């Protein structure tokens, strides 16, 4: 397509934060009348790129051209002024104000110096009618469903500037019908010549509505493709950093597939807000992997097993007994341990020492009134520091002073101290150095060999292959497949992540 | 917030503010009727005017606090501001200052303190409770630095404001009440018909959203504390007209009267919902209950007991309505 058609051109964009390089020499181009999906796994840099474009973050390097003219927005307001509006995942409107006011606040029409409510209500009703919404605009926003609120947000964004619309995961809280309605509107806006950037985790939706796809990975630009020419499997490969063709050629790694131990936990038809109808069997002495893209339900399944998310329906049996997973304490007492994904906010307590951090879960399991004695605590802490090779001058060191890898080991120790039957690790190796990564993987396999059941979640397929003896693949909040032994290969996993057998066939044809 | 909206098309479902305000007004009328039936001379214009006369200053203070509450903040410095204003004014007048200059000075000082608290809250992310607690201690402390005694006011202008009144039959309404009514009207207009006023509501509804919608959040948040302090200081001047003295220990705990008036009038402490008409009614109902308590010859603390009960009822009603609204939305 010609350059004249370009609406936004971002080139050589770099953004550094104190600890990480969020964007490194990234480019992005949006044309008029185009729905452009921006994809990537967690930490790929897509939100940072959006933030740079909308002025929430200031770019360190690179140029952003809007219709050929350089822009440098320093705030969302400045971005709005040049024609870039954003609708975020969470509806960013005010629930206490009327629908009409939410559309016009900040730019209220005025008459004789005061706000002209009549015009606001009239214009808002007209604007929403264009989106096939006939609702009472004088009612407060919170009297409507999230889907309506989202439409109102889009109406506001479109009304402010009809050039670029950024939709940041707009569908995550919508039902299927509402999603269709949103897509209709996106197509209509595209027809009106608007450029739409669409950020989502759902690949089905990407293919349904997008013209173009740009993939980022680890803060780097991977490529821009026409959606019609990019098979799903290749797309997934680009997102997680493995080329499908290359993979298929590589010899399938052979894992010693062990005899599965006795059945310890089984889940039937479990549904929460994050997953639907999941069946699972977990055996002693195995490492079970949950694979899938972010938002596929892999973490949500673990959260369900640990009793964090409320199970709407389904049955859970632990060691032959039916259990109701109500709250984390039940889970801990049933012998389940869980290292959550977000170590900093959900794992460590920075201002406590290593010893205290290790003791937390065990103390909880024992109950508040049976305090662990100091000497017991010291003994346990020393034991795990030695066993897991935690690098620290002493067990009194504050955990926040440790490196990421060592923090992760402390959390691992915290749960191992409770002597669990099932250990669940969600992204245990993210953001830690290669050496420690390997150590943690080794520990995981060792624990399973000793008879513990381990659930392992990671977005790095390499790591999953090395650790897991059995793997459940999740896609779009549902269980897509279960692989064991030799069936587990990067190629198969990717096929299932990308969308089942039909796509797998499609991929084979391509190759 | 749509209580008195210009257009009322099909408000079948009453909003939280509506109901709280309606209950307040209904209670006000009921209290008045019951009082009139029970006591001679209660059911007269005099009683109503006296409630206004006695509580004009509190109305002004409550209006100011309401701005802060609407953003989701809180201001517990206002009672000290009232005391500080009347003590400093009394002190300056005794020292022979021109009353206009004295009034201007105390208003400016109070607004500066309000701005200071606003900056602490906005720029240094200090909890509003802590920042205004500091303001409270500072101003109460300053009172006792100026004097520890009661200073009488004998200035002509103050005497004029204290004594001049409208008379309708036997009922008397002091001029300073008109100041309070004017403030309520202005505040109502500002909140309903100016961008600043709507920004206040937006911030109370969702501050993050307000920021992303490009509203001037920082400026607005600082300004509400300036307004609150200004109203408190003006309330302090009205209080000086009312008592014709300045005493450092006066109005201890009155900030809670102002806040509870707002809540009774339908303001949510979480911000975003409420209006100044409600706050004014909240003050009036407290005043009327006080009158009844006086008629009954009870200890004045019974006013507090009644208000406490009332507050509980209102908060529960608000919660129930909010829960019902959630359920309706879920359907």
Automatic annotation (TrEMBL), chain B:
Q: So which domain of life are we looking at? A: Bacteria
Enumerate the transmembrane spans: 20-39, 51-70, 100-121, 173-191, 222-245, 266-289, 301-322
Enumerate the Pfam families for this protein: BPD_transp_2 (PF02653)
Q: What is this protein called?
A: Sugar ABC transporter permease YjfF
- An annotated Gene Ontology molecular function: transmembrane transporter activity
Give UniProt keywords alphabetically.
Answer: Cell membrane, Membrane, Transmembrane, Transmembrane helix
Q: Which InterPro entries match?
A: ABC_transp_permease (IPR001851)
Q: Indicate whether Cell membrane appears among the record's keywords.
A: yes
Annotated gene: yjfF
What are the subcellular locations of this protein?
A: Cell membrane
Species, as recorded: Ligaoa zhengdingensis
Membrane-protein topology: Multi-pass membrane protein
One of the record's GO cellular component terms = plasma membrane
Its principal location?
membrane
